[in-house]
């Protein structure tokens, strides 16, 4: 199958359209962040830098850290951007961009998202490291793809959906993180559990300002959820699509976040740059 120009969209120099990257500029070990300024924080630890670019909100720096070639890439906010990032990263490695055909030998990428998040359990402190074992999506990206879920994923997803009773016809989907990356990133320093990915920051995460929402109960329901020893630990805005698309494309994906707002305790960080730098170093040493 040859992909037409309207489906595999490239710029005038043969780079993928949104990321503005060519295959030689990206490592198969990728640290993904939402904030483009965080890419520079990651690269501040690099021993060498071979590539640096930015197109729209997608900043990219590739270099080496302790002999490992690593790419730091920003996605911007939201699962809509993850849809772009995952498809274009996969295309860089697994599609011949000149022939517009799938390669015979496919590459499995290791992608770790580092982010910030809201905490949904009172016992997890602000600035705690929160590692996603599963990501449950309140967004709709996963519903547009032919995603294969395991029986365990479907059972856990159905339990969450039954418990939280979302407004309207909203349906959740849930995917497990890469077992290998989870083990690499796990330690006594880390809290782990189910991450919930929302489609927005305010109403979809149970916040209400002037506009009344239908989801004020959501945080309490998520905090109270328990099923076969699993609990929901945090809220963020990217991991559901990262895990679902990544796993079904054959990539290894994980997420670890710095908790900056404890929602049950109504505590918010007064500043977290040093803690974020420490988390970045934690990940670089383990990826």
Comma- or semicolon-separated keywords:
287 residues; alpha/beta; Rossmann fold; five-stranded mixed barrel; two-stranded antiparallel ribbon; 30% strand; globular
Describe the protein.
Helix 2 (79-94) packs parallel to helix 6 (239-248). The chain has a single domain, classed as Nucleoside phosphorylase domain (Rossmann fold, 3-Layer(aba) Sandwich). The strands form two sheets. It has a five-stranded mixed beta barrel with strand order 7-12-10-8-13, surrounded by four helices. It has seven helices and 14 strands. It has helices spanning 36-43, 79-94, 151-164, 179-185, 218-224, 239-248, 273-284; strands at residues 29-33, 48-55, 58-65, 68-74, 95-96, 101-102, 110-119, 129-137, 173-176, 190-197, 226-227, 230-236, 252-262, 267-268. It is α/β, with parallel strands linked by helices. It is 26% helix and 30% strand. It is globular and about 50 Å long.
Mean pLDDT, to the nearest integer, reads 96
Number of strands: 14
Beta-strand residue fraction? 25-35%
The helix/strand order is EHEEEHEEEEHEHEHEEHEEH
Q: What integer value in Å does the Rg equal?
A: 19 Å
- Which secondary-structure class do the elements indicate? alpha/beta
Q: What percent of the residues sit in helical stretches (DSSP H or I)?
A: 25-40%
CATH architecture: 3-Layer(aba) Sandwich
Name of the top-level CATH class = Alpha Beta
Shape: globular
CATH homologous superfamily name?
A: Nucleoside phosphorylase domain
Ranges where pLDDT stays below 50 over 5 or more residues in a row are none
- Count of spatially separate domains: 1
Report the CATH topology name.
Rossmann fold
End-to-end Cα distance, whole Å, is: 34 Å
Order of strands across the widest beta sheet?
7-12-10-8-13
